[in-house]
Amino acid sequence: IGESEETSFRPFTDKLHAMGLKAGIYSDIGYNACSQAWAPDNPNLPEGTQAEREVGLRGHVRQDLKLYFQDWGFDYIKVDACG
Question: How far is the CA of 4 from the CAs of 37, 49, 64, in angstroms?
Answer without folding.
Answer: 30, 23, 15
